[in-house]
Amino acid sequence: MRCSCALALWLVASAVASAAHATDEATKADCLAAHEASQSHRNAGKLRDARRDAETCARTECPRLVIEDCARWATELEPLIPTLVFEARGPGGTRASDVHVLFDGAPLVAELDGRAVAVDPGEHVLRFERPGTRGIEQKIVVLEGDRARRVQVEFPAAVAPPRPSGSPPDVATRPVPTAVWLLTGVSAAAFGSFAYFGLTGLDARGELVDKHCKPSCPEDEVDATFVKLLAADISLGVALVSLGVASALYFSRPEVRASLKGRAGAAGRAFGLDAAGLRARF
Asked: How many CB atoms are located within 10 Å of the residue 144 CB?
């Protein structure tokens, strides 16, 4: 029994040792891979990835020589990694925080909080997006060691939300006010009155001239002629004033935007009422 217990303990110890050895080998392989990747990323200008790999292979469980290299690299890379500070403002100059930033198409910042963000050196494309406005793209060249570089953008006024697919567009119209039609009618009537009284007044004055009765012409005929000519002058004034006011109202009428769908619906309802009226009359 005592031998069996000793054998069991030896087997357990062997298994633990084997597992620990396997773990050490896996950890060593990870450390060596991170060591190599850190150098490759640094040569490629991907300083953020290089620092991450250096921090990985600088762990205490890595081989001593690897730890020394990786710890030195991590220290060297820290001041070389550039950082950007983003600032966005709205149309009125107010500071905007509800902005997310894409770095070469990949998400970088979900919301602006004023903190510096580490990036890689080189030429890059920044895209700033804010709900309700158009996105803004900006090309920049970032230098190694460029710390807390400020990048500012200003968003334009909010744009209208996109129209649902299939809905008709709005149409700008300038309806003619009713007063324009009324004043035009008054002007036309006044021009007619001017023509009538002017012609009859001139005829009456011509008859008085033909009689050679001046200055002792019949008073009632002189008064009638004067009244006709006065009525012609007044009619001309009313016609010109009415036409002028109607023209001013016509050319200064405001623009009204209406949907084609709404106009079509209104036309359809009007047609329906007319048709119902026809059916009722017949």
From this structure: 14
Tell me, what amino acid is at 242?
A: S
Q: What is the pLDDT of residues 4-59, one digit of tens each?
A: 555 555 444 554 444 444 446 668 889 999 999 999 999 999 999 999 999 999 99
* Confidence (pLDDT) at 113: 92
Q: What letter represents residue 93's amino acid?
A: G
Instruction: Report yes or no: 197 and 228 within 8 Å, Cβ to Cβ.
Output: yes
3 within some domain: no
Handedness of CA 18, 20, 23, 29 (dihedral sign): negative
Same domain, 192 and 271: yes
158: helix, strand or coil: coil
| Structural domain count, the chain | 3
Q: Which of 50, 79, 108 is the last residue of a domain?
A: 79
Written as six digits, the tokens of 19 are 């597992």
Q: What is the pLDDT of the chain when averaged over all its residues?
A: 80
Length reported for the chain? 282
Q: Give the residue ranges of DSSP H helices in 135-218.
A: 178-211
* Phi and psi at residue 109, to the nearest 5°: -135, 130
| φ, ψ for residue 192, nearest 5 deg | -65, -40
Is the same domain home to 99 and 71? Answer: no
Among the listed residues 70, 51, 38, the one whose alpha carbon sits nearest the alpha carbon of residue 118: 51
Are the C-beta atoms of 174 and 255 separated by less than 8 Å?
yes
H or E stretch covering 278: helix 260-281
Beta strands in 66-222 (DSSP E): 83-89, 95-96, 100-103, 106-109, 117-118, 122-129, 136-142, 149-154, 170-173
Question: Phi then psi for 142, rounded to 5 degrees?
Answer: -100, 130
Q: Do residues 209 and 248 share a domain?
A: yes
* 271 part of a folded domain: yes
pLDDT higher than 50, residue 275 = no
